[in-house]
Amino acid sequence: MKATLISILILFVSQVYGRNYQTLLSNGKSWTMVQTNTSPVHDHDAIYTCTVDRDTVINGQACKVVMRCKDGNCDKVVMMEKEQKVFYHDPNIDSFLPILDFSLHQGDEIGEWGWVLTEDEIIVNGTPRKRLFIGDKNQIACVIKAIWVEGIGSNEDCWITLFDKHIGDYSYMSECGENGKVVFTQDDFCKSEERPYMPVLAEGRLWKLSYTYRDTWQDIPDTYMTIAVAGDSIVDGKKCKKLLVDYRNLTEVVYPQYIVAYETGGRVYRIDRDGEEHLVMNINLHHGDAVDIVQTVQKEDTVIVDGIKRKRLIIDSGVDHCDGEYLYYLVEGIGMSKDEFVNLGLTDENIYFHRLIACYDNGKCVFSAADFLKEGTSGLNMPKVNCPKNDQIYDLQGRKRGSIRKGEIFIRNGEKHINR
User: Fold this and answer.
1) How does DSSP classify residue 235?
2) Is the separation of the CB atoms in 30 and 177 below 8 Å?
3) From CA 108, how far away is CA 206, in angstroms rounded?
4) What is the pLDDT of residues 72-111, one digit of tens each?
5) For residues 30 and 48, what is the distance between their CA atoms, to the nearest angstrom?
6) 3-state SS of 269-305?
7) pLDDT digits over 13-67, tens only?
8) Which residues contact 282 (CB under 8 A, 6 or more apart)?
């Protein structure tokens, strides 16, 4: 009996702790990346791919050649993976620089700038993968700067070394594939056991919006518009959704019209007829983030409607929409409380304004305008992040201080204290 129990224990431990490490630089692995600007206002995002191409040997080390391609132009980089660490070979100094390190654990430091806030494991497509939440040492509060997943890479700035901080343009991973099959997307980085990310552009989705004059802020009686997800489309190689926009009982616009949009990594983009893309929604934003040059996220929480928990952003638009109404809402899997995918160029944005009346799934109302205002909770659908202790003292302006006078308020480990 004792021997049987020991055998079961050994089997359990080997299954939980003895699983094989998921290799990042495996043959057939590829990544689709989006390169954008740190400024909210930018031109077109650049799409490029990274593909593990072949084996090579550098300075006696077994390496991989990774092809990085954009707009038909390709260059190659050499990378090495060893002992759960990923390195980039810098030909200028003929040296290997560390990029990712999956041997790290919670509380470990990363170069001179960061540390591991939280370590856990997620299962995607039946495969368990180690996940590390990375924070910046110089942040007063506990802020996630990147998420690393074993065998996949980083959600942002994938090829940055551990000893540099990225300045200027940044990139994020749209999806990761193996032998032509997508095995991981941007949404999977924040996956929890509670539920997966809920897309906005779901088949069968329909939004009903009021139609309002901006000068009087009054809804036009018996007039509304609908936007319905109406099938798939392919634009410039991107899998998109067709949206049928229909204005009802309005003399100025009497025809329905299709627009095209796509969703990736919690972001929804609209594609105009000339092929220009516009970022419409970004549920990845957090409290204090800038939406554009005037709009900021004022609050981040979750709202529960019909037992479904959804992330909610409350955004200060900086514009008076309706007699002092500056705020609007963005809810995961639903969309925005105002001007859903407009101005679409169908009407004059200086005259008309739209508010969401209700959102439907296959004819059933799943969210109404009143639900935007429901009492929320700060419990976001993210694993708990434990901040490592940092005894550095800051004043209320965020400046490092060597000492604090009696009676002065200071910040340590993200909490306010008074020196009594």
Assistant:
1) E
2) yes
3) 47
4) 888 888 999 999 999 989 888 999 988 899 999 888 888 7
5) 11
6) EEECCCCCEEEEEECCCCCCCECCCCCEEEEEEEEEE
7) 333 344 688 999 999 999 988 876 544 444 566 788 899 999 999 999 999 999 9
8) 266, 267, 268, 291
CA distance 47 to 30: 13
Provide the mean pLDDT of the chain.
76
3-state secondary structure of 14: helix
| Cis peptide bond upstream of 419, omega within 30 | no
Nearest to 313 by CA among 293, 288, 294: 288
d(CA 280, CA 263): 10
Q: What is the pLDDT of residues 229-250, one digit of tens each?
A: 998 988 888 889 998 888 765 5
What are the b/e assignments for 298-330, b being 16+ CB within 10 Å? eebebbebeeebbbbbbbebeeebeeeeeebbb
Residue 420 pLDDT class (50, 70, 90 cuts): low
pTM: 0.51
C-alpha dihedral over 284, 365, 354, 327, to 10 degrees?
A: -50
Mean pLDDT across the stretch 402-419? 62
Burial class of residue 296 (count of CB atoms within 10 Å of its CB; 0-12, 13-18, 19+): middle
The token pair at 205 is 């989705």
DSSP label at residue 191:
-
Q: Is 303 in contact with 310 (CB distance < 8 Å)?
A: yes
